[in-house]
Amino acid sequence: MSSITAVVLAAFVAYGAAWYFGAVEGNFALLLFLATVVTGIYWLAERFYFLPQRRQAVAALEENAAKRQAELTKMGIHKVDDNTSEAKTRLIMQPWWLDWTAGLFPVILVVFLLRSFLFEPFKIPSGSMIPTLLINDLILVNKFHYGVRLPVINTKILDNHTPQRGDVMVFRYPPQPSLDYIKRVVGVPGDEVAYLNKKLTINGKPLSKSPLPDFFDEDSMRYAKQFEEVTGSKHYRILNDDDRPAFIPGTEDFPFKENCRYSSEGVVCKVPEGQYFMMGDNRDNSLDSRYWGFVPDKNIVGKAFFVWMNFGNLKRIGSFD
């Protein structure tokens, strides 16, 4: 078993290394699921087979020691060196290959359940959600807010809330579902979303957009025009770059593209059933639904709601809209 376990562990390490160096496209949810299954099998084998065997060996050792002591007592020898304690410790101790599998199962199981059904951490890799979220913000995503989904295959098994305009949502990037993206929901099924001349209109009603003091981006060392946008009861900040044109360059082919009309002023889209229109708060520096289309319900991961750490700026910790 030690040789088999060494091969299994080496396979996990090799996959992780290949993922880290970009040789393969990693899937952490699948990796964690497999680790849970494998260590679970070892845990069951330990509890119902290997541990009982070791206990039987200890019991046999104690029985033999007791018989030997009884025989020596009959011979008048009452004091003998007893080294059975050390032998029992060695017999009952888990071998390394069980320690690194069955021993890790409870921890891996807890992580798997928390990450799959409750909260999942993410790291913000780009500036598309500035000023709401900054690069290197570590955030938490509520996995059950939009319904309970099976891990890995992401199939919904229980409904909860539906995405609302203004929600900050993590989803699987439609052109490449192995990647997770984060944007703001601006259009829900049935909405007509218009983003013309850098003004957002939903179903013919322009969203309130009030100017704020310019935002200074420390990474790019530039100022950007900052506004407060209001969707329903949600107030959040957005950025606009006066140097960027209003039209949408380099759009891709995507499902339901016929629902969108592109012009030099921007884009107008009718959101299909079961789909959502997403945009980044950094409006002129965000690759979002304007370019690659709608996000289907099956791609939803969860609702982002809390920055739990930013090692470069501890003041970032807290909830956000």
UniProtKB/TrEMBL annotation:
GO molecular function terms listed in the Swiss-Prot or TrEMBL record: signal peptidase activity
Membrane topology value: Single-pass type II membrane protein
PROSITE patterns noted in UniProt: SPASE_I_1, SPASE_I_2, SPASE_I_3
Enzyme Commission number, as recorded: 3.4.21.89
UniProt entry tagged with the keyword Transcription: no
Domain Peptidase S26, residue spans: 98-309
Catalysed reactions listed for this entry: Cleavage of hydrophobic, N-terminal signal or leader sequences from secreted and periplasmic proteins
Top-level taxon in the UniProt lineage: Bacteria
Entry's family note: Belongs to the peptidase S26 family.
Protein name (Swiss-Prot/TrEMBL): Signal peptidase I
Origin species: Polaromonas aquatica
Gene: lepB
